[in-house]
């Protein structure tokens, strides 16, 4: 029993161990950020590597906690995300007064995400969702001297409280309609009665809030803009990735019998999310708001693959989230180093960036091309597989809308590329000094963006996990 | 011969360019790489002919297949037939000429050559791939380099033109994507493989939906009538080598795709929509020709005349006869070479006179005899003088079109034929104004072409004359491949 506990929950235990270690360090020592950061980075790397070791299938606590090869890989993607965040935002973290708190809160949130991915009942899901949300809201407030930062935290905590309320309502309705909250038992009890449909809609709404699916996206841009960039990156990559993973397993495993119902719902929301996200991204001036709306549009694309309800749908969503982690983190990383050293966050400020900073310009261009789905970057493969999975239902209208949205999104990604490479500027951003770990982070992201697609074994590996 | 070499060489060249220390090394690396690529292309031609004369009648030669994404049945499948060989040769010639013509680029030389080579990589890959997925992959690889080439090194309304081009081409490839997915899921087996798709029978309903998607999608690349608007803006704003690649190579991607993917895989769809294609391309031919008459800018003249000439390609495909189809491929090769040469000459003139307005020039023959002679040759080729490649190609298409005896096809053919007269008007008027007459003031001290420009022009002129005088070798190359497409169309 103890062995089971230790092995099946090893990812969670490793994270918990790091949290306590940081807590002791914070309370007990006066260690400088410069010395502490490499240790944390090393621990996160260890955490990422252990994600690939000793993976067994099994359940704990009466099927409250489920783990499998797939969930282990999904957790590894999140671990990769936080490792990259610790590298990319190193310059900001070193100067921050609250670096240990940042990592303690981040890892608590990640702990919640890990439990969420592994949850086997609605109760476990609710608890872990709360654990993954509240620390992030606290993180959004880390720029203590800025008003916008507290405003962002307030907005986030209010909207999450609202969505949690809806979620709880949905869970209780579900319990009333089926008499169970266990994922394994629900599918057999689904008969499509109006109460169950209502319960499902409430549950899905909570997911939609967290994933910022239109029309539940209104908090996203404000929070991204107000929070420190590192926190926006956590929100848009790690947090969204984990919600996408649990959404896909809830839809495919628990609500598979209701596929006919939720296919239409997901399709409609996907179309609306892509279009609204893209249209709003067209006119943004602030790079953080821009990335916020672009990530809303990306979620619309994830829904395209999600709608398939097939192995192809599952694998393409996981693959896309992996690619999205590399691409979006690279974009946020560039925004962060520029904002950190010059305080500039407007797209117009990026004009002529290539003249002074060729390296980060190329990284930014790669990241944006990958987000837009241009070959040979991995985003091309990710988006194409999502669309192919979505097309398997033969709904050509849906696929055409998705394909045309790729063109619209290209327009605004090219806007940034144009500012960086083509536009002239009297006073471009000065030469930016990158620390070694930031550089390493960019190189890993760049390699990930180029190689994840061309190396087809990554996709085969994900297929083999299912 | 291993076809991956055709992709690996440009890739290696691009990497070497990125690593090179100074601009001079970059230029020589690009030139060496493209010369080696031309040698390789010639080697391909020789090996191809050897196999054919040895009696190898397989549809595709040098096939090579490697499972890329087995879960989606995507394979890295390469192979060539006569049409592909012709297109690869065309690309190799235009690339060399383009590299030579950009010898004087000083602004971000490394990036410029890197993007040129990347663009050529996309074209090579596109012409030899036999799997629709990688075909699409290479098609899209070629878009962003064009955007950056125009936007960074271009002139005039370059940002606007670059944006318009990138968005229209991406819109076209979005249609291609939907069409390909329709084939993937609508066909009897889930595959992107071109040969497998062509051997299976695609349901007629699927063909009726997917054919227009694919044809229009590829058509955007090759200036299909209502979607041609990116052509004048893009070409005129691009730097010299950019225009050469754009008109010489990139527009041919679309024609090749229309023929190889849309028409070959979906014969029923092609028959259904043939009349619409013919009508649109006849409009494009005439409209392009008349629009050219009104242009004052040399680059706009060639850009609009490209719309007209590329209309011939689509007309040849839409006629669905073997002769016209051979003519369409010939026109792709001929127009690729000719228009690349034309843009090269315009670039040479502009570099010296710093104007592209026809009425601001005059008497250039006196100060730059070489450049003016090239201008004459390319102009005569454009208006279809016998002995040069333009005549051969357009004549073949018109003869092929005449095989249809009904009124509709006759009218379209006559309309297309009439454009040649219009072409003669605008070409002769422009050349006469630029090269003849009294020398305009301020042009007295202009020099003639430098070694790199001469070399580029001579390489392209040699091909144009070779095709014009001895078209049979090109015909032998393309004929059997067109025959296979015709067999499929006839249901054999």
Question: Key terms for this structure?
Answer:
heterodimer; A: 466 residues; mainly alpha; two-stranded antiparallel sheet; globular; B: 492 residues; 20 helices
Structure commentary:
- Chain A is 77% helix and 1% strand.
- Chain A is mainly alpha-helical.
- In chain A, strands 1-2 form a two-stranded antiparallel ribbon.
- In chain A, β1 (58-60) and β2 (65-67) form a beta hairpin.
- In chain A, α2 runs antiparallel to α6, α13 runs parallel beside α19 and α14 packs antiparallel against α19.
- With 492 residues, chain B is mainly alpha-helical.
- Helices cover 76% and strands 3% of the residues of chain B.
- Chain B has helices at residues 4-19, 23-53, 82-101, 109-128, 132-141, 143-153, 158-186, 194-199, 204-221, 230-237, 240-265, 267-293, 298-319, 322-353, 364-367, 369-382, 389-402, 407-435, 451-469, 472-489; strands at residues 61-69, 74-80.
- A two-stranded antiparallel ribbon of chain B has the order 1-2.
- In chain B, β1 (61-69) and β2 form a beta hairpin.
- Chain B starts with a helix and ends with a helix.
- Classes of the chains: A mainly alpha (466), B mainly alpha (492).
- The A-B interface holds A 312, 315, 369, 374-376, 380-381, 384-385, 387-388, 391-392, 394, 396, 399-400, 403-404, 406-407, 410-411, 414, 417-418, 421-423, 456, 459-460, 463 and B 68-72, 133, 137-138, 140-141, 143-144, 147-148, 151-152, 158-159, 162-163, 166-167, 170-171, 174-175, 177-178, 181-182, 184-186, 209.
What coarse outline of chain A follows from CA principal-axis ratios? globular
Per DSSP, what share of the residues of chain B sits in E-state strands of 2 or more residues?
under 5%
Mean pLDDT reading of chain A: 89
Rg from Cα of chain B: 21 Å
Low-confidence parts of chain B: none
Extract low-pLDDT stretches of chain A: none
Q: What structural class do the secondary elements of chain B suggest? A: mainly alpha
First-last Cα distance of chain A: 26 Å
Broad shape of chain B: globular
- What percentage of the residues of chain A does DSSP assign to strands (E)? under 5%
- Discrete helix count of chain B: 20
Secondary-structure content class of chain A: mainly alpha
Query: What is the N-to-C order of secondary-structure elements of chain A (H for helix, E for strand)?
Result: HHHEEHHHHHHHHHHHHHHHHHH
Number of E strands of chain A: 2
Q: Summarize the amount of helix of chain B as a percent range.
A: over 70%
Terminal Cα span of chain B: 30 Å
Mean pLDDT of chain B: 89
Going across the major beta sheet of chain A, what is the strand order? 1-2
């Amino acid at each position: 029993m103890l062995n089971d506990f230790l092995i099946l929950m090893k990812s969670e235990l490793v994270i918990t161990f790091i949290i306590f270690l940081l807590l002791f360090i914070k309370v007990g020592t006066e260690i400088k950020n410069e010395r502490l950061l490499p240790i944390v980075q090393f621990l996160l790397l260890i955490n990422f590597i252990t994600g690939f070791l000793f993976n067994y299938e099994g359940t704990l606590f009466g099927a409250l906690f489920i783990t499998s090869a797939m969930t282990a890989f999904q957790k590894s993607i999140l671990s990769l995300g936080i490792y990259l965040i610790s590298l990319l935002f190193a310059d900001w973290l070193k100067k921050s007064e609250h670096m240990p708190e940042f990592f303690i809160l981040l890892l608590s949130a990640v702990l919640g995400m890990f439990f969420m991915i592994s949850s086997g009942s609605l109760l476990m899901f609710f608890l872990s969702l709360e654990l993954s949300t509240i620390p992030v809201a606290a993180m959004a407030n880390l720029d203590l001297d800025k008003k916008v930062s507290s405003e962002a935290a307030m907005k986030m905590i209010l909207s999450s409280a609202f969505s949690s309320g809806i979620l709880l309502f949905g869970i209780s309705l579900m319990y009333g309609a089926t008499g169970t909250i266990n994922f394994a038992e629900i599918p057999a009890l689904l008969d499509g009665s109006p109460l169950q449909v209502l319960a499902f809609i409430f549950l899905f709404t909570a997911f939609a809030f967290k994933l910022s699916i239109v029309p539940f996206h209104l908090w996203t841009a404000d929070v991204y803009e107000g929070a420190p960039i590192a926190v926006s990156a956590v929100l848009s990559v790690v947090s969204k990735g984990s919600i996408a993973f649990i959404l896909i397993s809830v839809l495919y495993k628990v609500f598979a019998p209701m596929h006919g119902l939720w296919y239409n719902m997901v399709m409609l929301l996907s179309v609306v999310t892509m279009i609204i996200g893209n249209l709003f991204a067209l006119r943004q001036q602030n790079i953080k708001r821009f990335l916020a709306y672009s990530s809303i549009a990306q979620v619309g694309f994830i829904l395209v693959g999600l709608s398939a309800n097939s192995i192809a749908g599952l694998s393409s969503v996981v693959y896309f989230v992996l690619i999205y982690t590399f691409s979006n983190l690279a974009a946020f990383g560039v925004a962060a180093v520029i904002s950190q050293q010059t305080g500039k966050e407007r797209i117009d400020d990026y004009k002529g960036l290539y003249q002074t900073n060729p390296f980060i310009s190329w990284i930014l261009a790669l990241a944006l091309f990958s987000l837009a789905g241009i070959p040979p970057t991995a985003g091309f493969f990710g988006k194409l597989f999502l669309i192919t999975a979505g097309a398997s239902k033969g709904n050509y209208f849906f696929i055409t809308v998705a394909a045309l949205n790729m063109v619209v999104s290209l327009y605004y990604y090219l806007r940034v590329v144009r500012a960086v490479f083509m536009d002239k500027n009297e006073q471009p951003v000065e030469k930016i000094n990158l620390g070694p770990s930031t550089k390493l982070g960019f190189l890993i992201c760049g390699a990930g963006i180029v190689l994840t697609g061309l190396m087809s074994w990554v996709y085969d590996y994900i297929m083999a996990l299912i | 011969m291993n076809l991956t070499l055709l992709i690996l060489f440009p890739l290696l060249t691009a990497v070497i360019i990125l690593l090179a220390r100074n601009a001079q090394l970059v230029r020589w690396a690009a030139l060496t790489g493209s010369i080696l690529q031309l040698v390789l292309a010639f080697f391909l031609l020789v090996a191809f002919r050897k196999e054919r004369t040895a009696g190898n009648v397989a549809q595709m030669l040098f096939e090579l297949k490697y499972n890329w994404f087995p879960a989606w049945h995507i394979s890295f499948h390469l192979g060539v037939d006569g049409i592909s060989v012709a297109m690869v040769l065309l690309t190799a010639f235009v690339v060399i000429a383009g590299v030579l013509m950009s010898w004087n680029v000083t602004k971000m030389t490394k990036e410029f050559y890197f993007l040129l080579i990347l663009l050529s990589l996309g074209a090579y890959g596109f012409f030899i791939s036999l799997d629709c997925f990688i075909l699409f992959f290479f098609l899209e690889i070629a878009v962003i380099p064009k955007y950056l080439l125009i936007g960074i090194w271009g002139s005039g309304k370059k940002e606007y033109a670059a944006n318009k081009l990138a968005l229209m081409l991406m819109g076209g490839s979005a249609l291609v994507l939907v069409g390909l997915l329709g084939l993937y899921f609508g066909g009897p087996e889930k595959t992107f493989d071109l040969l497998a798709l062509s051997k299976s029978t695609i349901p007629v309903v699927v063909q009726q939906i997917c054919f227009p998607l694919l044809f229009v999608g590829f058509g955007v690349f090759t200036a299909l009538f209502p979607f041609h608007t990116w052509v004048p803006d893009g070409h005129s704003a691009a730097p010299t080598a950019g225009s050469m690649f754009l008109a010489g190579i990139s527009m041919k991607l679309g024609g090749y795709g229309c023929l190889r993917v849309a028409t070959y895989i979906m014969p029923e769809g092609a028959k259904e929509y043939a009349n619409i294609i013919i009508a649109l391309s006849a409009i494009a031919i005439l409209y392009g020709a008349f629009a050219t008459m009104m242009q004052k800018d040399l680059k706009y003249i060639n850009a609009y005349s490209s719309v007209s000439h590329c209309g011939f390609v689509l007309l040849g495909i839409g006629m669905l006869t073997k002769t016209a189809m051979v003519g369409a491929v010939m026109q792709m090769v001929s127009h690729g070479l000719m228009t690349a040469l034309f843009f090269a000459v315009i670039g040479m003139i502009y570099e010296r006179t710093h104007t592209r307005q026809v009425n601001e020039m005059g008497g250039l023959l006196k100060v730059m005899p070489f450049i003016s002679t090239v201008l004459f040759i390319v102009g005569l080729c454009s208006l279809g003088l016998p002995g040069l490649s333009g005549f051969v190609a357009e004549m073949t298409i018109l003869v092929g079109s005449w095989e249809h005896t009904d009124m509709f096809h006759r009218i379209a053919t006559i309309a297309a034929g009439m454009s040649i007269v219009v072409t003669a008007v605008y070409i002769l008027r422009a050349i006469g104004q630029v090269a003849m007459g009294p020398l305009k003031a301020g042009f007295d001290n202009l020099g003639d072409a430098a070694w790199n420009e001469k070399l580029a022009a001579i390489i392209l002129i040699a091909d144009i004359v070779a095709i014009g005088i001895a078209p049979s070798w090109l015909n032998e190359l393309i004929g059997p491949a067109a025959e296979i497409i015709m067999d499929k169309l006839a249901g054999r």
